[in-house]
Amino acid sequence: MANSDHYRPLELDTRYANAANQSINVNGIVYAYRDLGPRIGIPLILLNHWGAVLDNFDPQIVDGLARTRRVIAVDYRGIGGSGGSAPVTVAEMAQDAVETIRALGLEQVDVLGFSLGGFVAQEIALQAPGLVRRLILTGTGPAGGQGIARVGAVSWPLIIKGLLTFRDPKTYLFFTGTGESRQAASAFLFRIKERKKGRDKAPTLTAFLRQLKAIKAWGRQPPQNLDEIKIPVLIVNGDTDIMVPTVNSTELARRITNSQLIIYPDAGHGGIFQHHADFVSAALMFLDA
């Protein structure tokens, strides 16, 4: 049985909302990150969605994972507190991540990628297979996947709707229209405002558009040989993902031999945020297996 001390509530200064902003210089580029959790076992790297900065990681998920392992959340190049220009290809983002992981002195990591982060996580596993032990892919899909190149066309009307209704666009982009899902959206949006001091910089419009270019390129490029990913992979999504259609999660599970698939009902792109407690439990079980 696991030591129960690992599951005690996090102390105030170890919660993600209070984690120190840190930075590391990698080949002349400064990358912003936050680092928390016990310094035991294999560290878990978190890679987030299009336009996301450090404050867009769900504190409930980060804190839940950090109870038993070291968790490192990273800003992409050109986003938030990281310097340089945002890359326009997923391959460049993955190369940045690999170099940053190595600069942190880590020989092996687990990686959790959400949405765009899931594209980058796949690319890391293919670029540097010995670096990644286990992979968690959420709200994401393979290169050339169905509907991925249309993420901008799907997103812009809902971003405008958010502005017109004075709601965060993630209400419409990440969640379904049911009462339960909308309640989950409100709770998630409240959680990501938990941090009051030392918040990350918002992404610039230029960086936002450059990342969109990378997403479109990923959606249009030829499929990769995912048979080359031999490590265990956990794939998670909601059943009504309109940004990276859920069929892409099924396709990932079909093409990655050593994979598990979880699809949450009445949930959208942000299914892991709507079902954060269940997701943390499943992710820890997967990482500890």
Description:
- By secondary structure, this protein is of the alpha/beta class.
- It has a single domain, classed as 3-Layer(aba) Sandwich (Rossmann fold).
- The protein is built from ten helices and eight strands.
- It has an eight-stranded mixed β-sheet, with helices on both faces.
- α1 packs parallel to α10 and α2 packs across α3.
- It is globular, with a radius of gyration of 17 Å.
- The N terminus is likely disordered.
Rg, nearest Å? 17 Å
Strand arrangement within the widest β-sheet reads 1-2-4-3-5-6-7-8
Task: Classify the oligomer.
Answer: single chain
CATH architecture: 3-Layer(aba) Sandwich
Helix content: 25-40%
Q: What is the count of β-strands?
A: 8
For the record, the count of structural domains works out to: 1
The succession of helices and strands, N to C, reads: EEEHEHEHEHHHHEHEHH
CATH superfamily: Alpha/Beta hydrolase fold, catalytic domain
What's the story with the biggest beta sheet? 8 strands, mixed
What is the C-level CATH assignment?
Alpha Beta
Ranges where pLDDT stays below 50 over 5 or more residues in a row are 1-13
- Helix and strand content put the structural class at alpha/beta
**Tally of helical runs:** 10
Q: Outline, from the CA principal axes?
A: globular
Provide the residue-averaged pLDDT.
94
Pfam families: Abhydrolase_1 (PF00561)
Protein name: Alpha/beta hydrolase
InterPro entries: AB_hydrolase (IPR050471), AB_hydrolase_1 (IPR000073), AB_hydrolase_fold (IPR029058)
GO molecular function: hydrolase activity
